[in-house]
Amino acid sequence: METRANYVLIGAFTLAVIAAAFGFVLWFQSLHTTKLRSPIRIVFEGPASGLRNGGSVNFNGIRIGEVVSVKLDNPRRVVALAMVENNAPIRKDTLVGLEFQGLTGVAAISLKGGEESAPPVPLDEDGVPMLTADPSALQDVTESIRATLQNVNRLVADNQESVKNSLRNLETFTAALARNSEKIDNVMLRVDGVMSKADNLMLGLNTIAGGTAGGELNLMVKAIRELAEDFDKRSGALMADGRRTLSDISRAVNNFDRNPTRVIFGGGSSSNSQAAAPPPPPPPAPAAAAPRAPNGQKRQ
User: pTM to 2 decimals?
Assistant: First the structure.
């Protein structure tokens, strides 16, 4: 029982410490936020179109706070309460107006200018600083919006025929699309079929190529290579045979040139060859003593 009681006390103490830590963080955060920002009241002597809760408060274009509440003080006066940073250099002569983000954007309070030596913002009855917007600035914003709208209206009016023609052409185009919707569907189906065939063709080429595993294309290339090698070998042998044949023909022609009768009548005995041979030319004078040669030699 004592052990369980100790565990309960330890758990309760731990939860209390955690709750105190959370409370301290929340308190410090709220204190820090309160020190960083302070309220300011902005009075608009006229309409404040587009101003709403959560709108920005900008000083020279830089956001320094946001609008907390917007209410009507009387039918011609709008009062906005905002929270702004304490280090913002807001002075008594700071100009207040409205600015818009685009043509239809949300309005934001615009603070501009002011001298560093100017006195601080005067306080209202409840001690909250209060600034009054410049009616001319508001009027300038309103006039600029009106001028922009008038320019847009004038642009549309000057190009009324062009706008009508554009709309008419658009209507004609959409009507043509509606009339030819079936044809467009058929064209898209054909395109889809062509793309499908192209995919099949690519798959077939990939199958023929075979990738890393090899395929029909690899076998075809191998067969062509083997055929080329075999043709090279055979052509070498054929060229060698041709050279031998040409050599034999050249030899026969040379023999024919040297002894045509032998080539024509064939090779016979020596007596026949001597009888068929034409008589030799008469020997020269020194050879006249040839008949007196010894008996042991044979006449040539």
Answer: 0.39
